[in-house]
What we know:
The chain is an all-alpha fold. The chain folds into two domains: 201 residues, Hypothetical protein af1432, CATH 1.10.3210; 198 residues, Hypothetical protein af1432 (Orthogonal Bundle). 60% of the residues lie in helices and 2% in strands. The chain contains 21 helices and four strands. The strands form two sheets. Strands 1-4 form a two-stranded antiparallel ribbon. It has a two-stranded antiparallel ribbon with strand order 2-3. The longest helix has 22 residues.
Amino acid sequence: MLKEPRIPLFEMSMCLSNAMDLVSPSVVDHHKRVAYIASSIAAEMGLSEEKQEDLIMAGLLHDIGAISLKDRLDALNFELESSAHAELGYRLIRTFPTFSNIASLIRFHHLLWDYGNGSSFKEEYPIPMICHILHLADRIAVLINRKDEILRQAKGIIEQIRGGSGEKFMPVLVDSFISLAQKEYFWFDAVSSSISQILTRRTRLATIELDLEGLINLSRLFGKIIDFRSRFTATHSSGVAAAAEALARLAGLTKLECDMMKIAGYLHDLGKLAVPAEILEKPGKLTWKENNIIKNHTYYTYRIIETVRNLDVINMWASFHHERLDGKGYPFHHKGKDIPLGSRIMAVADVFTAVTEDRPYRPGMSKGNALHTLQQMAKNSALDPGLVSILISNYDGINAIRRAAQAAESKEYKEFGVSR
């Protein structure tokens, strides 16, 4: 019998950070380096463990609003002029109440010190010093060249940061960084392949667990990060989550299992962060190479989620949604009874949502065409015939649930004003 999962908040945050790294090899571990550098500067200054931990969490998620590859690569430019992604990140992070204490850090992590003018926003909103620590850490991190030996770079990085003291950075923070930068371990840690373990050891956040409601809310945030990259997928995960939950209930699953199915729906396309937007939005037929890139996404979903304890069942339900009963699916080629019921429900919900929503290469299918597609896939052993039969018998009800969920998400997408 399934038990309600208790999920470590820090591991889920690290999971999201790892997922955002999929957009390009150039950004791998950038969030973790910022988290490490920011918390190290705070420790050097003698700030409280609570502030250090806020900086770790904010560092892990600070570029959450950099939705596109261009946004992420632009953020690696030391002389970054636009910080629109910081405002979007602030608005996204606020949708998960547990992160409310780091929202302002993310919002102002590109605010210049400007000889003291950066101590407030529009002369009315006081800016905490740790916002400026996060900004400094972010700029230090982008100066690190991972292809070069780190100690050879240290002097040049120090001088460039020193040159920005007063204009870009709060002078007292620059002084603390320069003091810290004399210690070789700091640089070695910053580029270490074990940086995840280093961060885990220095925070008490690893002991904080999410209950089921908290996990649903956080997985909904994951879904936004996944979907908002393209206007054509902006509501997909919300539609799949709603359809999968409804289908699970009709298939006789328990309330707990239905909630877990919703979570799996929000997470099922996590690996699509590794798929370029131009492939997601391509109006024509995909090439062989592009199809292979698409096939990566379920593999990445599985490997990223498996780093989080107690998510094993949800991971299988989310990641096996392109497996087929005849074993011809991907990426693991499970077949028949080797595919859990939850995964088969997810597969049906994913196809149902995909064929009924608009895509760049076609409008959403009519009821008749959608039913025909589902029936053919069941006949060809791509989908579970019993589950397809349940969906067909309850089509209008499930479709209404799917449409309501996607309409609500579409409204939020427009309110966020994501530009693509």
